[in-house]
Amino acid sequence: MKRAGPDYSHEARCSGLVAGVDEAGRGPLAGPVVAAAVILDPACIPDGLDDSKKLTAQRREALFDTIMGCARVGVGEASPEEIDRINILQATFLAMTRAVAALPVAPDHVLVDGNRTPRWRWRCDAIVGGDGLSVSIAAASIIAKVTRDRHMIRLHEAFPGYGWHENKGYPTRAHLEAVTRIGITVHHRRSFGPVQHAFEFGD
Asked: Which of 7, 62, 147, 162 has the most neighbouring CB atoms within 10 Å?
Protein backbone atom coordinates (compact mmCIF):
# COMPACT_ATOMS: atom_id res chain seq x y z
CA MET A 1 0.00 0.00 0.00
CA LYS A 2 1.30 3.44 -0.94
CA ARG A 3 2.00 5.53 2.14
CA ALA A 4 0.19 8.79 2.63
CA GLY A 5 2.04 11.89 1.55
CA PRO A 6 4.85 12.41 -0.95
CA ASP A 7 7.29 9.67 -1.88
CA TYR A 8 10.35 9.08 -4.07
CA SER A 9 8.55 7.44 -7.00
CA HIS A 10 8.76 10.45 -9.32
CA GLU A 11 12.48 10.78 -8.66
CA ALA A 12 13.03 7.06 -9.18
CA ARG A 13 11.69 7.29 -12.73
CA CYS A 14 14.38 9.84 -13.63
CA SER A 15 18.06 9.16 -14.24
CA GLY A 16 20.93 10.78 -12.41
CA LEU A 17 20.64 13.54 -9.83
CA VAL A 18 17.07 14.81 -9.42
CA ALA A 19 16.21 18.19 -7.95
CA GLY A 20 12.79 19.17 -6.67
CA VAL A 21 11.83 22.84 -7.04
CA ASP A 22 9.09 24.90 -5.40
CA GLU A 23 8.43 28.52 -4.48
CA ALA A 24 6.92 30.56 -1.70
CA GLY A 25 5.41 34.01 -1.84
CA ARG A 26 3.54 34.41 -5.11
CA GLY A 27 0.46 35.89 -3.46
CA PRO A 28 1.76 38.45 -0.92
CA LEU A 29 1.68 42.20 -1.45
CA ALA A 30 5.21 42.62 -0.12
CA GLY A 31 8.57 40.92 -0.11
CA PRO A 32 10.36 38.71 -2.63
CA VAL A 33 9.20 35.49 -4.20
CA VAL A 34 11.58 32.77 -3.00
CA ALA A 35 12.33 29.43 -4.66
CA ALA A 36 14.33 26.45 -3.48
CA ALA A 37 15.88 23.48 -5.26
CA VAL A 38 16.66 20.33 -3.30
CA ILE A 39 18.52 17.18 -4.29
CA LEU A 40 17.81 14.49 -1.71
CA ASP A 41 19.99 11.50 -0.96
CA PRO A 42 17.62 8.55 -1.51
CA ALA A 43 19.37 6.75 1.34
CA CYS A 44 18.71 9.63 3.74
CA ILE A 45 15.25 11.08 3.21
CA PRO A 46 13.98 12.96 6.29
CA ASP A 47 10.81 11.62 7.88
CA GLY A 48 7.70 13.78 7.69
CA LEU A 49 8.34 15.64 4.45
CA ASP A 50 5.14 17.13 3.06
CA ASP A 51 3.67 20.20 1.45
CA SER A 52 4.88 23.05 3.66
CA LYS A 53 1.33 24.43 3.93
CA LYS A 54 0.26 21.24 5.72
CA LEU A 55 2.94 21.58 8.40
CA THR A 56 3.11 23.74 11.49
CA ALA A 57 5.72 26.49 11.63
CA GLN A 58 7.57 24.53 14.33
CA ARG A 59 7.62 21.39 12.19
CA ARG A 60 8.80 23.34 9.14
CA GLU A 61 11.65 24.85 11.14
CA ALA A 62 12.77 21.42 12.37
CA LEU A 63 12.61 19.92 8.89
CA PHE A 64 14.45 22.93 7.46
CA ASP A 65 17.45 22.16 9.66
CA THR A 66 17.27 18.45 8.84
CA ILE A 67 17.09 19.06 5.09
CA MET A 68 19.95 21.54 5.18
CA GLY A 69 22.04 18.95 7.01
CA CYS A 70 21.50 16.02 4.65
CA ALA A 71 20.62 17.37 1.19
CA ARG A 72 22.03 19.58 -1.54
CA VAL A 73 20.13 22.85 -1.51
CA GLY A 74 19.97 25.96 -3.67
CA VAL A 75 17.88 29.05 -2.96
CA GLY A 76 16.95 31.89 -5.30
CA GLU A 77 14.65 34.86 -5.13
CA ALA A 78 13.21 37.66 -7.22
CA SER A 79 12.76 41.09 -5.68
CA PRO A 80 9.61 43.21 -5.59
CA GLU A 81 11.21 45.43 -8.25
CA GLU A 82 11.70 42.42 -10.53
CA ILE A 83 8.14 41.23 -9.85
CA ASP A 84 6.81 44.64 -10.88
CA ARG A 85 8.98 44.74 -13.98
CA ILE A 86 8.43 41.27 -15.44
CA ASN A 87 5.24 40.07 -13.61
CA ILE A 88 4.88 37.51 -10.84
CA LEU A 89 4.91 34.42 -13.06
CA GLN A 90 8.14 35.34 -14.81
CA ALA A 91 9.65 36.45 -11.50
CA THR A 92 8.77 33.06 -10.03
CA PHE A 93 10.51 31.36 -12.95
CA LEU A 94 13.51 33.64 -12.42
CA ALA A 95 13.70 32.69 -8.74
CA MET A 96 13.45 29.00 -9.66
CA THR A 97 16.23 29.34 -12.21
CA ARG A 98 18.44 31.05 -9.65
CA ALA A 99 17.68 28.32 -7.11
CA VAL A 100 18.72 25.50 -9.45
CA ALA A 101 21.81 27.44 -10.53
CA ALA A 102 22.72 27.84 -6.84
CA LEU A 103 22.86 24.08 -6.24
CA PRO A 104 26.38 22.86 -5.42
CA VAL A 105 26.11 20.30 -8.23
CA ALA A 106 24.17 20.40 -11.49
CA PRO A 107 21.06 18.19 -11.54
CA ASP A 108 20.34 15.80 -14.39
CA HIS A 109 16.60 16.26 -14.04
CA VAL A 110 14.35 18.81 -12.31
CA LEU A 111 10.84 18.26 -10.94
CA VAL A 112 8.86 21.49 -10.63
CA ASP A 113 5.70 22.02 -8.61
CA GLY A 114 2.88 23.29 -10.82
CA ASN A 115 1.74 22.98 -14.41
CA ARG A 116 4.47 25.03 -16.10
CA THR A 117 8.25 25.14 -16.02
CA PRO A 118 10.76 27.87 -16.80
CA ARG A 119 12.58 27.82 -20.12
CA TRP A 120 15.93 26.55 -19.00
CA ARG A 121 18.71 24.14 -19.91
CA TRP A 122 17.78 21.37 -17.49
CA ARG A 123 15.52 18.44 -18.35
CA CYS A 124 12.39 18.87 -16.31
CA ASP A 125 8.83 17.83 -15.57
CA ALA A 126 6.00 19.88 -14.10
CA ILE A 127 3.96 18.07 -11.46
CA VAL A 128 0.63 19.56 -10.40
CA GLY A 129 0.39 19.28 -6.62
CA GLY A 130 4.00 18.13 -6.62
CA ASP A 131 4.67 19.29 -3.07
CA GLY A 132 2.24 16.61 -1.91
CA LEU A 133 3.56 13.92 -4.27
CA SER A 134 7.34 14.22 -4.52
CA VAL A 135 9.59 14.29 -1.46
CA SER A 136 12.14 16.44 -3.29
CA ILE A 137 9.53 19.07 -4.15
CA ALA A 138 8.11 18.85 -0.62
CA ALA A 139 11.60 19.50 0.77
CA ALA A 140 11.97 22.46 -1.59
CA SER A 141 8.62 23.85 -0.46
CA ILE A 142 9.79 23.77 3.16
CA ILE A 143 13.13 25.45 2.40
CA ALA A 144 11.44 28.17 0.33
CA LYS A 145 8.70 28.80 2.90
CA VAL A 146 10.99 28.98 5.93
CA THR A 147 13.53 31.13 4.08
CA ARG A 148 10.87 33.63 3.02
CA ASP A 149 9.13 33.68 6.41
CA ARG A 150 12.42 34.45 8.13
CA HIS A 151 13.05 37.24 5.64
CA MET A 152 9.64 38.81 6.31
CA ILE A 153 10.17 38.62 10.07
CA ARG A 154 13.44 40.52 9.63
CA LEU A 155 11.65 43.12 7.50
CA HIS A 156 9.01 43.47 10.22
CA GLU A 157 11.69 44.67 12.61
CA ALA A 158 12.43 47.58 10.26
CA PHE A 159 8.79 48.18 9.25
CA PRO A 160 6.72 47.12 12.28
CA GLY A 161 3.45 48.72 11.25
CA TYR A 162 2.40 46.08 8.73
CA GLY A 163 2.42 42.93 10.87
CA TRP A 164 4.74 41.07 8.52
CA HIS A 165 5.94 38.86 11.38
CA GLU A 166 2.42 37.36 11.34
CA ASN A 167 1.00 37.84 7.84
CA LYS A 168 4.33 37.49 5.96
CA GLY A 169 3.14 40.13 3.51
CA TYR A 170 -0.13 38.46 2.54
CA PRO A 171 -3.15 40.77 2.11
CA THR A 172 -4.74 40.31 5.52
CA ARG A 173 -7.15 42.95 6.78
CA ALA A 174 -4.47 44.31 9.13
CA HIS A 175 -1.95 44.58 6.31
CA LEU A 176 -4.42 46.27 3.96
CA GLU A 177 -5.43 48.74 6.67
CA ALA A 178 -1.77 49.53 7.32
CA VAL A 179 -1.16 50.15 3.61
CA THR A 180 -4.04 52.64 3.63
CA ARG A 181 -3.05 54.25 6.92
CA ILE A 182 0.77 54.33 6.65
CA GLY A 183 1.39 54.00 2.93
CA ILE A 184 3.65 51.64 1.04
CA THR A 185 7.32 50.72 1.40
CA VAL A 186 10.09 49.80 -1.01
CA HIS A 187 9.26 46.18 -0.19
CA HIS A 188 5.70 46.39 -1.54
CA ARG A 189 4.82 45.12 -5.01
CA ARG A 190 3.45 48.19 -6.75
CA SER A 191 1.99 46.19 -9.63
CA PHE A 192 -0.38 44.36 -7.27
CA GLY A 193 -3.87 45.88 -7.16
CA PRO A 194 -4.23 47.01 -3.52
CA VAL A 195 -0.69 48.42 -3.48
CA GLN A 196 -1.09 50.10 -6.84
CA HIS A 197 -4.31 51.72 -5.64
CA ALA A 198 -2.67 52.98 -2.46
CA PHE A 199 0.33 54.30 -4.43
CA GLU A 200 -1.86 56.16 -6.95
CA PHE A 201 -4.09 57.51 -4.18
CA GLY A 202 -1.04 58.66 -2.26
CA ASP A 203 0.19 60.56 -5.30
From this structure: 162
In this predicted model, what pLDDT tens digit does every residue of 151-202 receive, in sequence order? Answer: 999 999 999 999 999 999 999 999 999 999 999 999 999 999 888 876 554 4
Supply the pTM of this predicted model.
0.94
For the chain, which ranges sit under pLDDT 50?
Answer: 1-2, 201-203
- Structural domains of the chain in order of their starting residue, each with its CATH number: 9-159 (3.30.420.10)
C-alpha–C-alpha distance, residues 107 and 169, integer Å? 32
Task: Say whether 113 sits in a helix, a strand or coil.
Answer: strand
- Residue 110, strand partner residues: 19, 124
138 neighbors 6 (Cβ within 8 angstroms)? yes
Cα(82)–Cα(85) distance, integer angstroms: 5
Q: Which amino acid, one-letter code, is at 178?
A: A
Residue 120 burial (C-beta neighbours within 10 Å; 0-12, 13-18, 19+)? middle
